[in-house]
Amino acid sequence: MKIKPDENWKTNNGGAPLESDEVSRYISVVPSAAQMEHSKKPFYCFIHFGMNTATGREWGNGTEKATDFDLATVNPKQWAKAVKSAGASGIILTCKHHDGFCLWNTGTTDFNVMKSPYGLDIVSMTASACREAGLDFGVYLSPWDMHEPTYATPLYNDIFCRQLTELLTGYGEIFEVWFDGAKGAEAKEFEYDWERYYKIVRTLQPNANIAICGPDIRWVGNEAGAARENEYSVVPSYLTRAEMVQKHSQQAVSDAERLQKIKSSDEDLGSRKVIEKNADLCWYPAEVDVSIRKGWFWSPDTDSTVKSSRKLFEMYLNSVGNNAYFLLNIPPNTKGVIPRKETRTLKHLGEKIAAIYENPILVKKLGALQDGYLEFKFPAETKLTYCTIREDIAFSQRVEKFDLYVIKPNGKYKRVCKGGVIGMNKIIKVGANCIGAIFVIRQSRSTPHIEEIAFYG
């Protein structure tokens, strides 16, 4: 295949302006210090565990009692070990789901784990298990509360803020706070005091990212493990409005299956034609959340639906390898452990992820590029399995189009990727014998800043 090195960002930039006032506006949008730090650990796990585990439901109904949580054992150390084996960096625990049952020693309600037959602070146990395993710890707190009598009154905002404060002051460093947008269609209309919630997080845990109904990490828009073909981090600011997220979130238990089938690949959130129409832009990377089995909470009826490590690895490549975070849910069972089938799958997933990076052929730190055509020669003929590319997002997300070619042993070229955006991370599966590679950036918003390009065999 003929390569046209003159058709790159340095020459005609794909026909788009390389520099302009508009381009300057786009690249002025950069991540905060907390968002930068979060981008270094793109894969972590959800633990959905609580009253629904004991009752066998996906959603509670608000009539449960603390005594219904009658599990004999809970083993967060086993959860942490399983998560660690998958190559994930942290755990986000459902500290309070929609049923309102609190898994910690709260002073806001008697509907909590300390009043149950189990009687131990599970949030504390999980936070400690994470620290021992070298994992980050995050909290999920549902704004919708079926059990709390004050819900849909101004007093509820006070109670929710007290719950949030307890979680952010009693359990060490928190890396992510996950505010769910789900709310039943029958729930009373109520205006959550989002700005007050955010202020508490910023004050008590300034390094934490606020996700979903929050300004730091956006929901990808489905629960199918699917990211867009071009996943932008610079997007219109209106996407951060919590009400927007709630509108598209789960509104009934039956919605779960629908959301697990939705694809978002045809939605354009951040191309030039979209953001040029919006005066306010923000850095708002996507998070891909998916459960390892059907449903978010464990059920014996879903044992046959556990996803294979191969399927989960595809999701990893489609999220972490496509400028998004990957949040994999692993629900413990009524024995308080992650089932053996899942632990085996997680171990195999971790092995597949580690295999990407175990045989580096060539790793190059690049920085601000002076050329649009970069050729790399390998030490010897080799089978190239993966190529990873990372932009230096401290300078925003700039690359819009690129091509990757391999140089075959006979000296001919073959294009192995016609790519779009790069962002935090791009993982390209190659699988070709070659003696080198060529990286051509076709279109960029001003000068591209590539932190690293790496080739693995």
Question: Summarize this, please?
Answer:
This protein is α/β, with parallel strands linked by helices. It contains twelve helices and 16 strands.
Task: Give a structural overview.
- By secondary structure, the chain is of the alpha/beta class.
- The protein folds into two domains: 13-27 and 360-456, Jelly Rolls (Sandwich), CATH 2.60.120; 33-357, Glycosidases (TIM Barrel), CATH 3.20.20.
- The chain is 25% helix and 26% strand.
- The protein is built from twelve helices and 16 strands.
- It has helices at 21-27, 33-38, 51-55, 76-85, 122-133, 154-169, 194-204, 242-248, 255-259, 272-275, 309-319, 340-357, and strands at residues 43-47, 90-96, 136-141, 176-179, 209-212, 218-219, 234-236, 281-283, 286-291, 324-329, 360-368, 373-391, 399-407, 413-419, 426-444, 449-456.
- Helix 5 (122-133) links the parallel strand 2 (90-96) and strand 3.
- The longest helix is centred in the last third of the chain and has 18 residues, at 340-357.
- It is globular and about 70 Å long.
- The relative contact order is 0.15.
- The model is unreliable at 248-252 and 258-266 (pLDDT under 50).
CATH fold call of the largest domain: TIM Barrel
Instruction: State the helicity in percent bands.
Output: 10-25%
* Terminal residue distance: 23 Å
Q: State the shape.
A: globular
Query: For this structure, what is the CATH class of the largest domain?
Result: Alpha Beta
Low-pLDDT regions: 248-252, 258-266
What's the structural domain tally?
2
Order of helices and strands: HHEHHEHEHEHEEEHHHEEHEHEEEEEE
Number of E strands: 16
